[in-house]
Specification:
Layout lengths: L9 H14 L5 H5 L19 E5 L4 E5 L6 E3 L6 E5 L4 E9 L6 H10 L6 H5 L2 E9 L5 E9 L8 E11 L2 E11 L5 H15 L4 E2 L18
Antiparallel strand pairs: 1-2, 2-10, 3-4, 4-5, 5-9, 6-7, 7-8, 8-9
């Protein structure tokens, strides 16, 4: 399988991912005709409005909407971050929030995320294939960069991992969101695209801080980071 770069947002981004995973290198018309029908072999994240459950972290002063909310296992105590895992889809969502001593912007917050191991650098970053890189307003008052990327398998039968990263800044505040999910093979590309599009378009923009200037300060005692 060969994966190339593409772009889009929401449903359009989902179509792009599906096309990239299943037919990269084919004529561009394949991107136009690609669908986001769910693969019957891969578990899905429910996109029904009633399935969303907002989980609140009083420690980070943030609410995170989770699709298929009852199925997520949330850890908001043992690491510095809000960590939620969805075992049926091999999905993991990490939200990091901090107040930094200097004025921040989204580029500085991305560098901070790299230092913390929440965003890839070097060869690890170079191995990812970008689907979308865009700047958005939000969530709340944050100025945010969204990066959607794929880690292809060695062949069509190998697992494929998808990522959605968000690096947001507002004055001294930094927010990092890291979502990763895996499907068994390239044949599940439509399901992978649906998960990534759901998190990119309906989870990250709906994250809400009680007060965007409140967070766990950088000087707080360090807790072991969960891998």
């Amino acid at each position: 399988m060969r994966v190339c770069e593409g772009g889009g947002a929401g449903v359009g981004m989902a179509v792009a991912v599906a096309a990239l995973v299943s037919a990269c290198g084919a004529p561009s018309g394949h991107v136009e005709s690609a669908t986001i029908a769910r693969s019957p072999s891969a578990p899905s994240l429910s996109s029904e409005p009633g399935s969303f459950v907002a989980r609140h972290s009083s420690r980070l002063h943030v609410s995170v909407p989770l699709p298929d909310g009852a199925a997520w296992l949330v850890d908001d105590r043992s690491t510095p971050d809000f960590v939620a895992e969805h075992p049926p889809t091999e999905s993991k969502l990490v939200v990091h929030s901090s107040i930094e001593p200097e004025l921040m912007n989204r580029a500085k917050c991305e560098e901070r995320a790299q230092q913390l191991g929440l965003a890839p650098t070097g060869k690890a970053a170079a191995s990812l294939k970008t689907v979308e890189s865009a700047n958005i307003a939000g969530p709340d008052e944050l100025d945010t960069r969204i990066w959607v990327a794929l880690e292809p398998g060695v062949n069509d039968a190998s697992p494929v991992t998808g990522y959605v990263f968000a690096f947001g800044a507002h004055m001294h505040k930094c927010m990092t969101v890291r979502y990763e999910t895996r499907v068994a093979s390239a044949s599940d590309g439509e399901e992978l695209s649906a998960r990534l599009a759901l998190v990119r378009s309906r989870v990250i923009p709906a994250i809400h801080f009680d007060n965007v200037l409140e967070s766990v300060p950088r000087e707080s005692p360090a807790l072991p980071r969960r891998r």
